């Protein structure tokens, strides 16, 4: 099935899309025993999203809050803030979290959105396969093979909030397909509620390539990216980010012995915030995976990996990381066995043993049961253990502000969660599909701030609690040219401190809405035109308090020629602005905006 045909797929065909995030091998979406939502490349195009972080708003099982022109808070199942650390993000198999705080700098992570095949958003723990930090979810961004992006493509856009342009060219020589791309954008300053302009504009340029030899089953992929960006600051000195990566992946079919995948990449990033700190990080990562398709009633997947990081921080006058230089190593082995108990009943047992730099080796087990009531009806349940391993901010961080001192905890341990889930996925009619899941999370050893004297505090592990929630979404093909989609998320967290803790506020753990929902309509009109409308409602945030808001986005596109498309996109049309995160006195307001975009494909 070619990715280019996704726009023409029926609801039934979409449920058969092959995904890999749940089991680390290809399986139908309708068979996956997990809470997983797939954003297709066509979904992204019709949403009008211009950056990866904005495209993630399409997943109803994610919390996405824009904090400033360049900064986002993104998480799953709670604990959301600008340094959220319980969500693992991969781009074409490359893990992009920073060991500085176990989270993602979203201003540094982007792709050519037109090259995205799909984004698999797996909410819930994925630690038994993906390792530490896959606590509340996994985002897996998968781009298209070079053979699916042949020819030339270019776009340009301009509007009231930003502007950008990009181009790509793909070709083939023998059994080798390749592509190269480049893109640039400028994001304008945001403003506060009283109209004061924030000095937070940013610009970024990114280039990259991909080459594929052979097929997806028997072949080799080499790809890489490089970027550089500038972020405005209140001072005259702007912040700068830059980075590059190179990844190689080899797939080999072993016939009766299953399949083998070997992958390695290097990733270099730099971040310079004048007067605060600068970081230079180099990562080397290697992993292999072997899958045995059938051993009687068993399907076994196993593998391992090694990761090395060299982090150098140039400390500022107020905050610092000590030691400034740190060499870190991680290693893991994992195994998963899918056992066919009956023809329609499958038990999946898996575990990963991961060694991290700070706490040594820890087990990450899981068990999943899938019951196929009918070909398109799945009931599933899961029990898992996951952890968030310590990062440099937990152990090596120091802040001095006058007489007050704050430091990482020398004995800071891994944060732990035990998760119990049940879910139901069904396609009762060819035009209708939906998924519902509920979860109960039991957290222990969460990060707390513990006073050791009147002027000194350190990080500890004395917060605990539970999180309960419901995730649901569905799609309805109302007519051949009209598709409706909806999603909703409810969350209730109860966090508290242990009796011997000196902390007094749980707000630092995250700031999450109790509910959110999303409605989308995609309509193909006569004369080669399209109308897309999205309405999202996000509940109020408790601390710091942010009012609930409703955002309405509209896209109208006209296929002028077979090779040329013109689109008008309106954002937040029914309100002049709204806040999504931060303190009332200083937070940015996300303003109403619009832009025009021209796409050319040859």
**Helicity, as a percent range:** under 10%
What structural class do the secondary elements suggest?
mainly beta
Secondary-structure arrangement, i.e. CATH architecture = Beta Barrel
CATH superfamily: TonB-dependent receptor, beta-barrel domain
- The CATH topology is Maltoporin, Chain A
| Secondary structure: number of strands | 38
CATH first level: Mainly Beta
Q: Give average pLDDT, whole number.
A: 93
Please give the alpha-carbon distance between the first and last residues. Answer: 21 Å
Q: Rg, please?
A: 23 Å
Query: How many discrete domains?
Result: 1
Overall body shape: globular
Low-pLDDT runs:
1-7
Helix and strand topology:
Layout: H1 11-14, E1 18-19, E2 27-28, E3 35-40, H2 41-47, H3 52-55, E4 63-66, E5 72-75, E6 87-91, E7 94-95, E8 116-123, H4 127-130, E9 137-143, E10 151-159, E11 162-173, E12 176-187, E13 202-214, E14 219-231, E15 239-253, E16 259-273, E17 277-295, E18 298-315, E19 319-321, E20 325-342, E21 345-356, E22 360-374, E23 377-388, H5 392-395, E24 397-401, E25 404-407, E26 415-429, E27 432-451, E28 456-479, E29 482-497, E30 515-525, E31 529-538, E32 541-542, E33 545-546, E34 549-561, E35 564-571, E36 577-579, E37 589-591, E38 593-601
Parallel strand pairs: 6-9, 25-28
Antiparallel strand pairs: 1-2, 3-8, 4-5, 6-7, 8-9, 10-11, 10-38, 11-12, 12-13, 13-14, 14-15, 15-16, 16-17, 17-18, 18-20, 19-24, 20-21, 21-22, 22-23, 23-26, 24-25, 26-27, 27-28, 28-29, 29-30, 30-31, 31-34, 32-33, 34-35, 35-38, 36-37
């Amino acid at each position: 099935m070619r990715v280019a045909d996704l726009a023409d797929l029926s609801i039934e065909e979409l449920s058969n899309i092959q995904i890999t995030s749940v089991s680390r091998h290809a399986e139908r979406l309708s068979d996956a025993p997990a809470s997983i939502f797939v954003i297709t490349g066509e979904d992204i195009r019709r949403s009008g999203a211009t950056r990866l972080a904005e495209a993630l708003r399409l997943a109803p099982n994610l919390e996405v809050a824009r904090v400033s022109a360049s900064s986002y808070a993104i998480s799953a199942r709670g604990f959301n803030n600008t340094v959220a650390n319980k969500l693992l993000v991969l781009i074409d198999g490359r893990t992009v979290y920073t060991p500085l705080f176990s989270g993602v700098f979203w201003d540094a992570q982007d792709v050519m959105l037109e090259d995205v095949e799909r984004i698999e958003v797996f909410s819930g723990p994925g630690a038994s396969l993906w390792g530490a930090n896959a606590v509340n979810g996994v985002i897996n961004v998968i781009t298209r093979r070079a053979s699916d992006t042949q020819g030339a493509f270019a776009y340009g856009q301009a509007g009231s909030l930003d502007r950008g342009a990009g181009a790509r060219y793909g070709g083939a020589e023998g059994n080798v397909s390749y592509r190269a791309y480049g893109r640039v954008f400028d994001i304008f300053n945001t403003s506060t509620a009283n109209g004061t302009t924030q000095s937070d504009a940013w610009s970024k340029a990114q280039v990259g390539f991909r080459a594929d030899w052979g097929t997806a089953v028997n072949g080799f992929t080499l790809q890489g990216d490089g970027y550089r960006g500038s972020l405005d600051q209140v001072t005259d000195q702007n912040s700068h980010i830059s980075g590059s990566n190179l990844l190689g992946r080899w797939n080999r079919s072993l016939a009766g012995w299953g399949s083998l995948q070997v992958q390695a990449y290097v990733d270099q990033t730099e971040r310079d915030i004048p007067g605060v700190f600068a970081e230079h990080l180099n990562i080397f990562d290697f992993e292999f995976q072997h899958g045995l398709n059938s051993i009687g009633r068993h399907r076994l997947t196993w593998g391992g990996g090694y990761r090395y990081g060299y982090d150098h921080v140039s400390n500022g006058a107020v905050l610092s990381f000590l030691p400034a230089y740190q060499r870190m190593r991680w290693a893991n082995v994992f195994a998963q066995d899918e056992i066919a108990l009956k023809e329609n009943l499958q038990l999946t047992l898996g575990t990963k043993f991961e060694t991290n730099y700070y706490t040594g080796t820890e087990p990450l087990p899981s068990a999943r049961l899938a019951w196929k009531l009918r070909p398109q009806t799945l009931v599933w349940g899961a029990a898992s253990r996951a952890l968030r391993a310590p990062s440099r901010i937990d152990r090596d961080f120091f802040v001095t502000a006058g007489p007050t001192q704050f430091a990482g905890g020398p004995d800071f341990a891994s944060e732990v969660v035990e998760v119990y889930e049940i879910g139901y996925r069904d396609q009762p009619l060819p035009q209708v599909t939906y998924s519902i899941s509920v979860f109960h999370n039991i957290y222990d050893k969460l990060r707390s701030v513990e006073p050791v004297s009147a002027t000194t505090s350190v990080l500890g592990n004395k917060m605990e609690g539970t999180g309960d929630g419901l995730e649901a979404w569905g799609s309805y093909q109302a007519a051949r040219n009209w598709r409706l989609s909806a999603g909703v998320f409810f969350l209730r967290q109860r966090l508290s401190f242990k009796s011997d803790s000196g902390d007094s506020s749980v707000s630092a753990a995250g700031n999450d809405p109790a509910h959110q929902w999303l409605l989308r309509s995609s309509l193909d009109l006569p004369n080669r035109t399209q109308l897309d409308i999205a309405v999202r409602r996000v509940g109020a945030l408790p601390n710091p308090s942010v009012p609930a808001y409703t955002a309405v986005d509209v896209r109208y596109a006209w296929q002028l020629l077979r090779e040329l498309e013109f689109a008008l996109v309106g954002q937040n049309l029914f309100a002049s602005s709204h806040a999504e995160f931060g303190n009332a006195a200083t937070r940015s307001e996300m303003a109403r905006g619009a832009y025009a975009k021209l796409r050319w494909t040859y």
